[in-house]
Automatic annotation (TrEMBL):
Source organism superkingdom: Bacteria
Lineage: Bacteria, Pseudomonadati, Pseudomonadota, Alphaproteobacteria, Hyphomicrobiales
Stretches assigned to the Carboxymuconolactone decarboxylase-like domain: 41-120
Matching SUPFAM superfamilies: AhpD-like
Gene3D superfamilies: AhpD-like
InterPro entries to which the protein is assigned, alphabetical: AhpD-like, CMD-like
GO MF annotations, alphabetized: peroxiredoxin activity
Protein's name in the database: Carboxymuconolactone decarboxylase family protein
Length: 181
């Protein structure tokens, strides 16, 4: 059980409308969403920071950034939700999904651009900055709009990890689990 009790149905009409927009038809809202929505202010801020729209990154690029960020922060909750919801659509193989948790950025299952992307996520996580060389490598594959999106995704999913891990959210029953080896 979460350290803050999540909302239970029936939900306020405005919150239900938000849940209907972000969840697949017929799916129950995630514990994460129901917990954050206990605070109108927190829910509004969280909802407004969403980066799951059609931004400049491809679905595959976006999901690599999210999964790697969640793996680095030890956020099995959000990593599993994203693997279950998006890995297939993003055309990530089982080996690549596993690599987001267990392999270095230069794992051979990734293209050169993807290795550079993962190295940037790793650098941002570990040092909160990119060296000139790391930025130049990233800029060789991604334009300024994509680079800003990468940085925003890393920051937003650090926030998601802080919430999910800090509240010790129970893992979604249908979500993937971190690979063990």
């Amino acid at each position: 059980m979460s350290r803050i009790a999540p909302l239970q149905p029936p939900y306020p009409a405005d919150v239900q409308a938000d849940f209907d927009r972000v969840m697949p038809p017929g799916a129950s809202p995630l514990v994460l969403f129901r917990t954050i929505a206990t605070s109108e202010r927190a829910w509004k801020k969280f909802r407004n920071a969403s980066l799951l729209d059609r931004g400049p990154l491809s679905l595959r690029e976006r999901e690599i950034v999210i999964k790697r960020t969640c793996a680095l922060t030890g956020c099995e909750y959000e990593w599993g939700v994203h693997v279950t919801a998006f890995a297939q659509a993003a055309k990530l193989t089982d080996e690549q999904v596993r690599a987001t948790v267990l392999e270095p950025a230069d794992a051979s299952c990734w293209s050169g651009a993807e290795q550079t992307l993962i190295a940037a996520v790793d650098a941002l996580h570990h040092r909160a900055r990119l060296t000139s060389e790391e930025f130049a490598a990233l800029a060789a594959h991604f334009d300024g709009m994509k680079i800003l999106e990468i940085m925003q995704l890393c920051g937003f999913y650090h926030t998601v990890a802080y919430i999910a891990n800090g509240l010790d959210l129970p893992l979604e029953s249908n979500a993937a689990r971190f690979p063990q080896n």
